[in-house]
């Protein structure tokens, strides 16, 4: 949700900022802009993607060694050239980029208008640029104190970087609820929404905390203070992110690369945490609070989007294997209904980005109520990872395609490991079954590889159904959340309306929609509910629906009646989602390609949703 890049050093700022904005486009891509400081303060901004900004700016004065850039996901004001960032103050002295929402912008704007300010854009951000200018001029302050004063008046979420035309070797960044990372190079500095624009130049970074302000001065280097102007101690982290991890690596799209990475990423999620031969599963994060977690009254899982779907699979896993009572909540709904949470509950947040605003708000509330907070996060050092009492990184590596794929399977892998660890500790699982699941888990990466071989067949099915405008996804038990996830993938990237349903629930409504134009994807692998799902398929066929069935290798019954079948290797019930979701990811991918959609940056979506 909006990406920020800023640079101050000896190199030309513009190419570094543009390259960084390309890396951050997953956060928003409806408009982009830069401000370059070289005696004058030049601002270039354009509706559309970063490439459009580049085309627009190519003949302009781009010389500068200090600059800020922004790629936007609109919240206030439609995406157009004027509403694009950077925003400047009334007299043009200040330029600012912002990620977040200034909730009291209306009141501030009114007060500034009374003081004679006039505004160009419809954004909340412009108000902040004007407010900073007001403090700069009114009290003859320096930029840092003007920013500090302005921020004390602001309600809402922000990550900002600010430039002052009168102070060409200086910039100020600050954050509250939206992420901001400072990169420390050799006599050069970077500020960005995440480390991806920085890693090419340095692996030394500081993750700013809420209400921290960083100043960067060409002569005196950097300093981090809090909003009360007290100097803060900082931890410099050394990242081991590699540049290749941020490239497409020969694939047409990041999403396809990420789908095909899953044998490796699932393996990475398990690395060091499991040894089937020795009957060993250990999830380090659980050990720190094992008694409390083991004896919790309830697990409450909070998450959004795809992460919420893996939370639903977590519910099945914890309940079946570890006999723990679980509730799965949409993070966005959680805090608006006065939920009953006590100190005996464990609240688990699942988040790929670790920056989702709704999930963060849910966690804050759970914390206030005294629950233990556990995080299952991909993005190392992210805000959610730092908010939790304990947690496990999923180690899937950077996920760049907006539609989540490898993060989902890694989240489910961690949830399986956690459920097994707790089941063993609580003695709720039969020893042979425990061993069997461990062995199966270790085999999953190899089996995912096998499923990926169906890619050509899935592309063919995609060609057959590419023109459908609706689709239904059905599954039971562990595969019900997979049906939801399959439908979400199709909606997200191919803009086809799709619904996921528990297979047996179909007869209570969606069956009315079925006709010869309706593709119905049925996940029919569950050994336990096989006969029931078979009947559901018969019901669809009787109404002329076209059935695409995901079946277990060697299936003969469903093959006889379904229009298309995709085989996946057999495994134990709790692990089927790790295999059954793969064909659904590929199906959505190929349909979206055939329909000419933007795979990695689907319209209106953003990968990291930092507004509520
Ligand atoms: C956005 C993304 C989804 C993601 C969801 C939750 O909607 O487009 O892919 O599942 O946010 O994000 P999180 O980072 O918290 O997992």
Provide a brief overview of the structure.
The chain is α/β, with parallel strands linked by helices. The protein has an eight-stranded antiparallel sheet with strand order 3-2-4-1-10-9-11-14, with helices on one face.
Distance between the termini: 11 Å
Rounded mean pLDDT is 94
Helices and strands: which structural class? alpha/beta
Return Rg in Å.
Answer: 25 Å
Quantity of strands, as a count:
26
> Strand arrangement, largest sheet?
3-2-4-1-10-9-11-14
Biggest sheet, open or closed, and with what strands and sense? 8 strands, antiparallel
Content of β-strand: 15-25%
How many helix segments? Answer: 20
Q: Which cofactor or ligand species appear?
A: 6-O-phosphono-alpha-D-glucopyranose
As residue ranges, the low-confidence spans are: none
Helical content stands at 25-40%
User: Any idea what the shape is?
Assistant: globular
């Amino acid at each position: 949700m909006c990406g920020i890049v800023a640079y101050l050093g000896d190199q030309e700022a513009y190419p570094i900022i543009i390259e960084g904005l390309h890396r951050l486009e997953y956060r928003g891509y409806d408009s982009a802009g830069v401000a370059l400081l070289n005696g004058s303060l030049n601002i270039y901004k354009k509706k559309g993607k970063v490439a459009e900004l580049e085309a627009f700016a190519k003949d302009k004065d781009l010389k500068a060694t200090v600059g800020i850039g922004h790629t936007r996901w609109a919240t206030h004001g439609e995406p157009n050239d004027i509403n694009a960032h950077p925003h400047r103050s009334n007299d043009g002295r200040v330029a600012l980029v912002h990620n977040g929402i200034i909730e009291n912008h209306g009141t501030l704007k009114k007060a500034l208008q009374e003081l004679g300010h006039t505004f160009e854009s419809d954004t909340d951000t412009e108000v902040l640029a004007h407010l900073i200018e007001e403090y700069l001029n009114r009290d003859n302050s320096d930029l840092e104190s003007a920013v500090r004063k302005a921020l004390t008046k602001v309600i809402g979420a922000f990550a900002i970087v600010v430039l002052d035309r009168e102070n060409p070797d200086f910039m100020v960044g600050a954050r509250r609820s939206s992420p901001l990372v400072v990169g420390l190079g050799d006599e050069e500095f970077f500020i960005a929404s995440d480390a991806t624009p920085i890693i090419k130049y340095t692996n030394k970074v500081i993750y700013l905390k809420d209400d921290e302000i960083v100043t960067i001065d060409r002569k005196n280097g950097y300093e981090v203070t809090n909003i009360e102007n007290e100097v803060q101690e900082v931890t410099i982290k050394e990242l081991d992110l590699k540049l290749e991890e941020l490239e497409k690596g020969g694939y047409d799209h990041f999403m396809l690369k990420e789908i095909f990475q899953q044998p490796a990423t699932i393996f990475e999620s398990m690395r060091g945490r499991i040894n089937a031969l020795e009957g060993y599963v250990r999830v380090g994060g659980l050990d720190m609070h094992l008694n409390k977690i083991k004896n919790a009254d309830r697990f409450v899982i909070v998450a959004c989007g795809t992460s919420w779907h893996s939370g639903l699979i977590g519910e099945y896993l914890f309940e079946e294997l570890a006999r723990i009572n679980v509730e799965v909540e949409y993070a966005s709904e959680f805090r608006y209904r006065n939920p009953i949470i006590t100190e005996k509950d464990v609240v688990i947040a699942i988040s790929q980005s670790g920056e989702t605003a709704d999930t963060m708000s849910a966690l804050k509330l759970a914390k206030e109520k005294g629950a233990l907070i556990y995080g299952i996060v991909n993005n190392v050092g992210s805000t959610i990872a730092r908010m939790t009492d304990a947690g496990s990184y999923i180690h899937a590596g950077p996920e760049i395609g907006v539609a989540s794929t490898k993060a989902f399977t890694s989240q489910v892998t961690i949830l399986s490991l956690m459920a097994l660890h707790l089941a063993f500790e609580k003695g709720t699982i039969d020893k042979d079954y425990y061993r069997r699941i461990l062995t199966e888990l270790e085999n999953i990466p190899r089996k995912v590889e096998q499923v990926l071989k169906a890619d050509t067949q899935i592309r063919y099915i995609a060609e057959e159904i590419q023109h459908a405008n609706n689709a239904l996804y059905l599954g039971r038990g562990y595969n019900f959340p997979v049906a939801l996830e399959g439908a979400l993938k199709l909606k997200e990237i191919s803009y086809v309306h799709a619904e996921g349903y528990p297979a047996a629930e179909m007869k209570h409504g969606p069956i009315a929609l079925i006709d010869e134009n309706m593709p119905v994807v049925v996940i029919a692998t569950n050994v336990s509910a096989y006969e029931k799902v078979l009947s559901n398929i018969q019901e669809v066929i009787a109404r002329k629906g076209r059935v695409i069935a995901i079946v277990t290798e060697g299936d003969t019954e469903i093959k006889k009646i379904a229009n298309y079948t995709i085989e996946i290797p057999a495994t134990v019930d709790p692990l089927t989602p790790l295999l059954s979701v793969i064909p659904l990811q590929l199906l959505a991918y190929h349909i979206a390609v055939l329909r000419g959609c933007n795979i990695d940056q689907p319209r209106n979506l953003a990968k990291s949703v930092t507004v509520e």
